[in-house]
Design brief:
Helix content is 0%, strand content 42%. The chain is mainly β. The chain has 2 domains: 62 residues, no CATH class; 207 residues.
């Protein structure tokens, strides 16, 4: 990989070209380790350099490398339930997959999903930082209440596109990266409870969110590492998960009499993990920051 850049609004990779391989100086990043040797770029590097050695104009060189990364095991030990949060006072009524603060005044259920990413570094390897990057595809729709004069503005959708979910790195339960020392193991864990506030003026609301969460690792830079060659975050594994739900609000009776207990009710809903890959992955890329609620990010990104 020639370069990889990340901002909240865009992550892009630049691949090496034939011209790059013909320069006297070649700088690049390994981004998928020898653990996944099915990708030829991982272990083989062929370059042609200009030279005047022994009268030859160019010399072709091919080298094989063994590049190893930490191994990782991704799991989701907790999957919560889809609920309508209706615990007054001072709580926003929402349709969500679990709740972020089950012990707080507006909670009452476990988080929607919790993650454990267990990583082991090769012997004699440099240490680094372990974390996660999550992308989200937001889907939702609403049905306005009949006769309501000012229906609420619909929430945005990402229409099949995966955007960055909140932060470049998700952060563990302490809002930090997790240190992984060379030749040792470490556990990164955190959780998520996505939700949508339910608006007055809707008769029903449905949500379908899909997620890709990457276990990512950045090796520590050596003292001799030039600043322009600082290490990048690489993806050690990938988990895909989703949740969906439908909530309804009672329709007023034709007689005009008040509907007893007119409160939002869950009609259906569930969440699940759809796939897990415990192998190095292509780098996550995106073209926008998802329109989700802002959250604190780990120090340093």
């Amino acid at each position: 990989m020639k370069s990889y850049s990340q901002t909240p609004s865009k992550a892009a990779e630049t691949r090496l070209t034939t011209t790059d391989y013909q320069q006297q100086s070649l700088s690049f990043f390994w981004y998928i380790a020898h653990n996944n040797a099915s990708i030829p770029e991982v272990t083989n590097l062929a370059a042609t350099f200009p030279t005047n050695w022994n009268g030859f104009g160019r010399v072709s060189v091919q080298a094989n490398f063994s590049v190893w990364s930490p191994t990782v095991t991704l799991s989701a030990p907790t999957l919560g339930s889809v609920n309508v949060q209706d615990l007054p006072p001072n709580c926003v009524i929402s349709l969500g997959f679990g709740f972020a603060d089950p012990a707080g005044p507006c909670g009452g259920t476990p988080p929607g999903i919790s993650w454990n990413f267990s990583a082991t570094s090769p012997a004699n390897a440099v240490g680094g930082q372990l974390d996660a990057t999550q992308l989200i595809d937001i889907g939702n729709s609403d049905t306005p209440m009949s006769g309501f004069s000012s229906p609420p503005t619909p929430y945005p959708n990402t229409s099949g596109t995966y955007d960055l979910d909140t932060c470049l790195r998700y952060g563990n339960k302490q809002g930090q990266h997790t240190a992984l020392a060379g030749g040792s193991s470490a556990l990164w864990n955190s959780d998520d409870s996505p939700s949508f506030p339910l608006q007055t003026g809707w008769h029903s609301f449905s949500a379908t969110d899909r997620f890709r969460i990457y276990a990512v690792f950045m090796p520590d830079n050596l003292p001799s590492t030039p600043s322009q060659n600082s290490n990048i975050w690489v993806a050690l594994g990938l988990m895909q998960w989703k949740w969906s739900g439908v909530a309804t609000f009672p329709t007023p009776s034709p007689s005009g009499k008040p509907t007893p207990n007119p409160i939002w009710r869950k009609s259906s809903g569930a969440g699940s993990v759809t796939s897990v890959a415990n192998t190095p992955q292509p780098l996550p890329v995106w073209n926008a920051l998802a329109p989700t609620a802002p959250q604190p990010c780990p120090p340093g990104g």
